[in-house]
Write a structure and sequence with these properties.
37% of the residues lie in helices and 20% in strands. By secondary structure, it is α/β, with parallel strands linked by helices. The chain has 2 domains: 11-135 and 321-472, Alpha-Beta Barrel (nicotinate phosphoribosyltransferase); 136-316, Alpha-Beta Barrel (TIM Barrel). The strands form 5 sheets. The protein has a 7-stranded antiparallel beta sheet with strand order 13-12-1-5-3-19-20. The chain is globular, with a radius of gyration of 26 Å.
């Protein structure tokens, strides 16, 4: 895939840019923000993809081959195409940090730039941030279900393309996976890679025992054997134990076994008994086979003796939720030298946007636990040292006054006046950050079934502004 992704956009972004050019609107300042809408299975999300968004924006430029192709469409005049030769992003972008926990309806990326520039980045922004955030969130749900057991990302072969597999693995590590089977992700992003052998290895030898001996000979200090090619309990486990004993005589201890089929709860319990009886209580039992957070939870409830989880298809494709549902909306536009709030109205309250350029704050109680998020007009002076009353914007009679609390601005710069800003890019460092933030969110907000909604509130001024727009219904 080409490195310059400027042309990775929807046609209507370009036709709107052309319209702005024709009507003299291209250079008007505009503010857009990205958020995701409430949806079942997405009561929270783990932000990811901002590093790739930053790289995409930094590389925005139209090559001659791009202009030749656009000319062939017969939609744009020569003046517009010539203007694209010098196209560069000169605006500012702020975003939540990768690894932050985010909630429906709040701005997670804010773009402040010339109208044409802010318009063009929409498609790629939603793609890069939406996909990785979706996978990081799915990974986090799976890791939480594993209750501290290591989780390996195994999804490359089932991913919907190489970028989805590689960047999805990156996002999975941010979400909490400890390693990936994807070697390219390991190389590009410095994350641990993991894997042993497939059934084809066993089937390539005359016997299972011979296959196990050969593998142990190649990797004597990393011997983890796949035991379900023929019969897990009557063949695989006995042969694995025999090889483990042979390796121990040579001075090596096995890592353990992997099972990829069958009743994992029953088989893992019996495998644990057999390994312990044979003198290998430290040998780990790894399981794979279409796992997700729900199956892992059920296996744990059934007393499965699984120490390590390899999760592939249902993680990398985010089975059960195919898209984040991210949207990108205009919230302010320059008129006569000043930013004027804009709003998108709807008969569905959840689809009514927030007008104006806004900022996002996370409020913590005196114990450091997140109490609520507050959305307020950018630049509004809020005295966070004084008591603060917050309320549900949909049901404003539900109010709470905070007295001992702290506030953290959530949006940090990716670009300032066209200049790329330094951010943390390492998935391992971002995973550690995510883990630290996870400790500040109450468990009831993160549970997969019937979660308690997290409070995302509006400041008084923003709530009043939106109410006035809704009552006047401009247009």
């Amino acid at each position: 895939m080409r490195e310059n992704l400027t042309m990775m956009t929807d046609l209507y972004q370009l036709t709107m840019m052309y319209g702005y050019y024709r009507k003299g609107l291209s250079r008007r300042r505009a503010v857009f923000y990205m958020f995701y809408r409430p949806a079942e299975g997405l009561n929270y999300a783990v932000a990811a993809g901002m590093a790739q968004l930053r790289d995409y924006v930094a590389g925005l430029r139209f090559e001659e081959e791009d202009l030749t192709y656009l000319s062939s469409l017969g939609l744009f005049d020569r003046g517009f195409l010539d203007s694209l030769r010098d196209f560069r992003f000169t605006g500012s972008i702020d975003a939540v940090r990768e690894g932050d926990f985010i909630f429906p309806g709040e701005p997670i990326v804010r773009v402040d730039a010339e109208l044409s520039q802010a318009q063009l980045v929409e498609t790629a922004l939603l793609t890069l941030v939406g996909h990785q955030t979706l996978i990081a969130t799915k990974a986090n749900r799976i890791v939480r279900a594993a209750q501290g057991d290591p989780v390996m990302e195994f999804g490359l072969r089932r991913a919907q393309g190489p970028d989805a597999g590689t960047l999805g693995a990156r996002a999975a590590v941010i979400g909490g996976c400890g390693s990936t089977s994807n070697v390219l992700t390991g190389q590009l992003f410095g994350v641990p890679v993991s894997g042993t052998h497939a059934h084809s290895w066993v089937m390539s030898f005359d016997s299972e025992l011979e296959a196990f001996r050969a593998y142990a000979d190649c990797f004597p200090d990393k011997t983890l054997l796949l035991v379900d090619t023929y019969d897990t309990l009557r063949s695989g486990l006995p042969n694995a134990i025999r090889v483990f004993r042979e390796q121990r005589q040579k001075g090596y201890e096995p890592l353990g076994i992997r099972m990829d089929s069958g009743d994992l709860a029953y088989l893992s319990r019996r495998a644990r008994e057999m390994l312990d009886e044979a003198g290998f209580p430290k040998a780990r039992i790894c399981a794979s086979n279409d796992l997700d957070e729900y199956l892992i939870r059920d296996l744990k409830l059934q007393g499965a003796k699984i120490d390590l989880w390899g999760v592939g298809t249902r993680l990398i494709t985010s089975q059960g939720r195919s898209a984040l549902g991210g949207v990108y909306k205009l919230c302010a536009l320059e008129e006569d030298g000043r930013l004027v709030p804009r709003i998108k109205l709807s008969d569905t309250l959840e689809k009514v946007t927030l007008p104006g350029k806004n900022s996002l704050y996370r409020l913590y109680d005196r114990d450091g636990m997140a109490t609520a998020d507050l959305i307020a007009p950018h630049g509004e002076r809020i005295d966070f040292s004084a008591p603060l009353t917050i309320f549900d914007p949909q049901e404003p009679w539900k109010r709470m006054t905070l007295t001992e609390y702290t506030a953290r601005p959530m949006l940090a710069p990716l670009f300032v006046n066209g200049e790329k800003q330094p951010i943390e890019e390492s998935p391992l460092a971002l995973s550690a950050y995510r883990a630290s933030q996870e400790k500040t969110i109450w468990e009831e907000h993160l549970r997969p079934l019937n979660p308690h909604p997290y409070k995302v509130d509006l400041s008084d001024s923003l709530w009043a502004l939106r109410r006035d727009f809704m009552e006047k219904r401009p247009g």
